[in-house]
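Researcher: Quick test of sequence recovery. Tokens follow.
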């Protein structure tokens, strides 16, 4: 099945099973804004808990923060967002559609990468176990030709971004004959910059109102509170501040479902270090964050690092962790060495000293910062994309049917276990309710007695429930139940008294966190 078709099915699945809804849908919706339904909010909260616990519980020198969305407007002047928080946009004159010029070029590069992957895949099938991928890539003429194109575009693209050369960005689009996905034409306007911040007003009267902004990132809330946390928490360098919160960007080219939205959520760590130690910590957090992703078991081959084509003016190192989405490898997390830019800027604009006195060095300095920033919504999408599965099964009558399931990591699954009485009579519902009541304080459970047991299994598969417990007549005799495993559909008989321990072992956040240390 084409990846584009998989993505369309995934989007429809999110709506059908209560994961994600279009915001204000009864009024025809609001573009690039989404609501999380009853299943989506559970999955999202589990992702956030895994991130927060891995940062704060596993690191004695990391603490949490929850800063306000509204901030003093000078904050955004100091951070550079007022003057430089822009996207390079280009319009197609025929379709009247607007695109980010850099995204159009990145998509072009990805097309050449896909061609290489297809050549490699065909060769793997042809040569089997004897296939040497590195040798093939270094000798195959078609692979080499595509790689040469990639390198050529990368070189020009990187130079244009770093020089803020909008004319050459357009020229790349023209030279490589990038067409509008809607009209198919190549009739483009010039590239121009567009500021992404939402503004509003604060004040009791229209005349006395002041212009402020919805924050476009959560990081600045950490920087302006750096000294408060350091002093009240008696924190010593190196230390970090972790925060989960909403951010807002006026994305003109919002697309790909929840991948790029106007209202989104970030999980960020700002880690304060001595000047000169930043690259050591940059490498440390790169390794730790990649391990965090891979520990979920979504396939190591689906993750990669991608170094930035253009470094922000304040950064001396930056890389992204990308995940293989149905529409290609895309960024889910960024790791940046931000130097002392942010604190130095806020120190200058506020007139307040934001230096740290280092007793070991016996001197004061403005700390450097290493940042890890992950989009909750993008992480959510990557998990769903990796979990969405269709397989063929045979029903009780010997008929083949397609089973749709979400192979979610058990620790992140919205519902950990469904309790299903085989029949709605003979005391089975009452016994099933007893089991629910005994486990509901430790696990998020669901009770379901409607329809045949097969249909109930399918419903639970579709929302990613890893375990189904069936209560039958034998349960009333010996206090045992059948536990059915989502991914394999295997079943085993277990004692009701053992259910808590079985579940705890398989869905324990503690066990997952232990794998990171």
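Model:
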């Amino acid at each position: 099945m084409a990846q584009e078709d998989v993505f369309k099915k995934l989007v429809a699945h999110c709506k059908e099973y209560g994961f994600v809804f279009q915001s204000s849908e009864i009024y025809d919706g609001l573009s690039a804004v989404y609501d999380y339904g009853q299943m989506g909010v559970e999955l999202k909260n589990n992702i956030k808990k895994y991130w927060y616990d891995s940062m704060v519980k596993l690191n004695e020198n990391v603490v949490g923060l929850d800063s306000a969305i509204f901030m003093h407007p000078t904050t955004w002047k100091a951070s550079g967002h007022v003057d430089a928080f822009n996207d390079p946009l280009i319009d197609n004159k025929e379709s009247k559609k607007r695109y980010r010029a850099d995204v159009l070029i990145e998509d072009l590069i990805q097309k050449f990468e896909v061609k290489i992957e297809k050549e490699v895949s065909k060769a793997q099938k042809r040569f089997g176990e004897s296939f040497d991928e590195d040798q093939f890539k270094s000798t195959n003429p078609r692979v080499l030709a595509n790689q040469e194109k990639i390198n050529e575009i990368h070189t020009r693209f990187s130079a244009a971004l770093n020089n803020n050369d909008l004319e050459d960005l357009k020229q790349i689009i023209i030279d490589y004959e990038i067409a509008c996905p809607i009209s198919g034409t190549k009739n483009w306007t010039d590239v121009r910059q567009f500021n992404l911040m939402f503004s509003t007003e604060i004040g009791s009267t229209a005349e006395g109102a002041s212009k402020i902004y919805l924050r476009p990132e959560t990081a600045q809330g950490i920087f302006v509170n750096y000294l408060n946390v350091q002093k009240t928490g008696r924190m010593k360098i190196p230390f970090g501040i972790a925060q989960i919160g909403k951010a807002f960007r006026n994305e003109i080219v919002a697309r790909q479902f929840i991948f790029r939205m106007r209202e989104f959520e970030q999980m960020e760590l700002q880690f304060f270090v001595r000047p000169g130690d930043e690259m050591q910590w940059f490498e440390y957090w790169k390794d730790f964050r990649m391990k965090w992703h891979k520990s979920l078991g979504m396939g190591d081959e689906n993750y990669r690092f991608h170094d930035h084509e253009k470094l922000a003016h304040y950064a001396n190192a930056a890389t992204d962790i990308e995940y293989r989405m149905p529409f290609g490898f895309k960024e889910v997390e960024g790791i940046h060495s931000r130097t002392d830019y942010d604190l130095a800027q806020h120190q200058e604009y506020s007139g307040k000293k934001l230096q740290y006195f280092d007793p070991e060095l016996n001197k004061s300095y403005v700390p450097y910062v290493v940042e890890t920033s992950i989009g909750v919504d993008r992480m959510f999408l990557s998990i769903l994309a990796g979990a969405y599965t269709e397989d063929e099964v045979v029903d009780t009558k010997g008929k083949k049917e397609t089973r749709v399931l979400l192979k979610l990591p058990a620790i992140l699954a919205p519902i950990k276990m469904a309790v299903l009485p085989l029949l709605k009579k003979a005391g089975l519902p009452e016994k099933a309710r007893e089991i629910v009541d005994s486990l509901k304080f430790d696990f998020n459970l669901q009770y379901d007695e409607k329809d045949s047991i097969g249909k109930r299994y399918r419903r639970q598969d579709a929302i990613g429930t890893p375990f189904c417990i069936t209560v039958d007549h034998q349960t009333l005799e010996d206090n045992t139940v059948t536990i059915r495993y989502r991914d394999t559909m295997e079943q085993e008989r277990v004692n009701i008294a053992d259910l808590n321990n079985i579940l705890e072992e398989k869905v324990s956040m503690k066990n997952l966190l232990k794998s990171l240390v």
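The CA atoms of residues 439 and 500 lie 7 Å apart.
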